[in-house]
Amino acid sequence: MPEKEVNNRLDYMPEQVYGLSTMNRLSTDKRIAVIAALVEGMSINATCRMTGVAKHTVLKLLKDLGCAAASYHDAHVRNLRVRRLQCDEIWAFVGAKMKNASMEKVEQGWGDVWTWTAIDADSKLIVSYMLGQRGAETAHEFMQDVAARVSTRIQLTTDGHKVYADAVESAFGADIDYAMLVKIYGASNDNPESRYSPATCIGCRTGVLSGKPDPDHISTSYIERQNLSMRMGMRRFTRLTNGFSKKLDNHGHAVALYFMQYNFCRVHKTLRVTPAMEAGLTDHVWDLEEILSLL
Questions:
Q1: What is the distance, to the nearest Å, from the Cα of residue 254 to the centroid of all Cα atoms in its chain?
Q2: Which of 90, 153, 96, 102 lies closest to 126 in space, CA to CA?
Q3: I want to staple 160 with a disulfide (CB 3.0 to 4.6 A). Which of 10, 182, 220, 283 is the partner?
Q4: What is the rounded CA–CA span in Å between residue 94 and residue 98?
Q5: Residue 135: how many CB atoms within 10 A of its CB?
Q6: What's the rounded Cα separation, in Å, for the pair 79 and 151?
Q7: Which distant-in-sequence residues (6+ apart) come within 8 Å of 249 by Cβ?
Q8: Cα–Cα distance between 61 and 25 in angstroms, integer?
Q9: Is the predicted pLDDT of residue 177 greater than 80, yes or no?
């Protein structure tokens, strides 16, 4: 799939955000019930069954809120005082895996799609996210966005994906402490009983690419745990099911809504506040009605 087709945070038009003729037919309580089901990982069809709301209305609400959430994140998650940042990318697909998608379907947006994320290791805030492919073009655009959102010198850790090196240098220059953490895996076992189990990690090695990163904080643990949260919290990311996204736009809307709820509504068990509160972006825990008010 050409990268230029999916490299975006979703360029929403204002009329998309405020086109609420369908939503005016739903009460606030009903819309909140739909949002609650979506952010807790329910599929579209399951949400329809639980709430009694028509499928096209649920999709319309998801679209409107995805647009609003992406716009709010882009405008307000900026000038962040971050010390330690971790980045990674997580795989999913739209319509079909790339190897199974015809050229006609690929042109319609089907195939593999990666969600790139950057998390503040201290506040657990998702600083930046982006949908795209796993190549250099997306990496450069993603790192430029990360650099534009932080106002301090940071220590950055990524995995060993080679496209990060040039992308980080292009975005930050020498004004960063950057290290890669490369995990070493044992031989895979293709027995039927363990076909879907990951290979065993038998060690790690680190490499310093810029500055003087603190060895004690060269880690990708938080971003990898966030990847797990995404797998569990969004039906579209669940493996070995038919809950995957059928349209790229809907996939992006779901991701935008998820991160909005994660940053501003979900109280972190260790911090006992939301990531946005810990990062100084808000002074209270948002509820779903407040997210709805973005419309």
A1: 9
A2: 90
A3: 182
A4: 9
A5: 12
A6: 5
A7: 10, 63, 109
A8: 11
A9: yes
